[in-house]
Every structure is written in structure tokens, then in C-alpha cells.
Amino acid sequence: MITFRDVSVVYPTGTKGLDGVTLEIPDGQFVVVVGLSGAGKSTLVRAVNGLVPVTSGELEVNGQRVDSASKRELRRLRARVGMIFQSFNLVTRVSVLKNVLMGRLARTSTLATLVGAYGAANREIAFEALERVGIVEKAYVRASQLSGGQQQRVAIARVLAQQPDVVLADEPVASLDPPTANAVMRDLRRVQRELGITTIVNLHFLDLAKAYADRIIGMRAGKVVFDGVAADADDAVFEQIYGRSLTAEDVSTVDVGPIL
Ligand SMILES: Nc1ncnc2c1ncn2[C@@H]1O[C@H](COP(=O)(O)OP(=O)(O)OP(=O)(O)O)[C@@H](O)[C@H]1O
Asked: Signal peptide: which range, if any (predicted)?
């Protein structure tokens, strides 16, 4: 369970990233956060693993307070909370397998990782993660050789190798073309369903949000202005979240098709 109690984030510049957010996210939910640029979506997601410090209020992840966590507690929390980024954040000059093994870093002794000796158990976990996202045949390929969609799958596998309770994805498909974006969302949703991992994703394509979310959270100026099931989020709701009419740029224009 992730709980926000009246959480605000004020950046050093004085800008309010979050403004009195109160939310409860139960285990295993697939949550999509939508809103215009600057609405506070990234701030919300990054607050969960302490990447962005909370200014006031209480934020708890599976019983661990994030707002008042020590460095050690934050390290422990981040081992259980995986993060996926728009730019994939892979080490592109090394193999796919090495990238995925990096997901084991928080779980492996420093000495073992220094000498690159992750051990058979860790390699097995890494291969299983690659299999789950259908890319195991690329294990020994340099990450730089892969397409954007494949690189994001490797990033998902790296997060899975962490064996997380929670996955945070900050605009994970914003750099991908619409069909690839759809395929990556499908993978994220499938692994979330298979493993029961709580997943929070920022998206700007509303059709993808509607297709994949269990729950949609709409943000505007740091506040939650919509919180409901995807079926209730119609165009009128999105227009209210955005404060303007929808345009062609708000949808991915891909036929999403039936979702599992
Ligand atoms: N490091 C920072 N320093 C100062 N202000 C920031 C910082 N990061 C974000 N902000 C500001 O906080 C507000 C919320 O930003 P945030 O990135 O959370 O929005 P967003 O909805 O994710 O937008 P986008 O879709 O453009 O990423 C914005 O006004 C933004 O300019």
C-alpha cells in the first residue's frame, strides 16, 4: 500500500510540484497519472522512492515512511521500488544481460559486483526477467544495438530483476512511436498482472491511459483533480483535467486492440 497524506513538494525555486495530495494506492494496482506538462506527474511518481523530497505531509510505502526516511532506509526502499525512465537509462556499451544484472546490485554484495561475479542465482533471475519481456535472445547483444522499444524492454527486465514490490514508470513510452509505445505498455501491464506488482505510470497519451489503467489519476497544478476507474474517464473528464479541449496530439492514434 502506498499512502499520501496531504503531501506537498515545493522545489528550491519556490515552484509547487505537489499541492496537498492525499491518495491511497492498494497493492497490485496499475495506476496511470495524466495531466498537462508541469501538472506534477513526475513529481508524484518520483516522490514515491524519495527521488524528490517531500516538503510537508506524510508519504508511506509498504509501511516505510518516505518523508522522514534516513539514507539507509531510502536505500532499502529503493531496492524494492523499481524505476523506468523515458530515456531507458541503459548502459549502452555493455550487453543486455549486464544491464539486467545491474538490477541485482542492491541485492548483491559490493565485492561480488566489483569483480562482476553476480553468481548463478542472479544470472538465472536476469534470464527469467529477459524471458518475461520476450527478449532473451538478445542477452549477449550490446544494448546500443537495440531499437528503442527493445531497450525499454531491457529496462523493464532490469527492474524485474530487482524483484520489486512497486514499479514507477516516468513517461516510459514518450520516446517511442505509437505502435511500439502500445507494445511496451502491453508488456508493462502483462508483467504487472503476472507478478502482482503495484505500478504507477505517467503517460501523456490518453487512449493508452484508458486502455491500460485500472485507475486514472488526473493532475493539474500539483493537485489531484480526478481519481477514478479508467471506464469513468471520458473525454469530458480529460478536458476537465487539461482545462482545454482535446487535440489529436493527446492520443497515440494506434489501434490499442483487446487488452488481456
Ligand atoms: N527540479 C525542479 N526544480 C524546480 N522546479 C521543478 C523541478 N522539477 C519540476 N519542477 C516544476 O514543478 C512543476 C511540476 O513538474 P513535473 O515535472 O512534476 O510535471 P509533469 O506533469 O511531470 O510535467 P512533464 O509532463 O512536462 O514532465 C512544474 O512547474 C515544473 O516546472
From this structure: none
Domain boundaries defined on the chain: 2-244
Q: Could you tell me the distance, in angstroms and rounded to a whole number, from the CA of residue 85 to the centre of ligand 1? A: 15
Select from 37, 202, 204 the residue to mutate for testing ligand 1; criterion: most ligand atoms less than 8 Å from CB. 37
Q: What is the CATH number of domain 2-244?
A: 3.40.50.300
- H helices within 102-252, ranges in order? 110-114, 119-132, 148-161, 178-195, 206-212, 235-242
Could you tell me which of 179, 238, 170 has the C-alpha nearest to residue 202? Answer: 170
**SS3 label, residue 242:** helix
Distance CA 62, CA 204 (A): 28
ipTM: 0.96
Cα–Cα nearest to 33, from 216, 235, 252: 216
* Residues having CB within 6 Å of any atom of ligand 1: 11, 13, 15, 17, 35, 37-43
Task: Name the residue of 15, 16, 32 to mutate for ligand 1: max ligand atoms within 8 A of Cβ.
Answer: 15
pLDDT truncated to tens, each residue of the chain (260 aa)?
Answer: 999 999 999 999 999 999 999 999 999 999 999 999 999 999 999 999 999 999 999 999 999 999 999 999 999 999 999 999 998 999 999 999 999 999 988 776 565 655 566 688 899 999 999 999 999 999 999 999 999 999 999 999 999 999 999 999 999 999 899 899 999 999 999 999 999 999 999 998 888 999 999 999 999 999 999 999 998 988 888 888 888 888 888 887 667 666 65
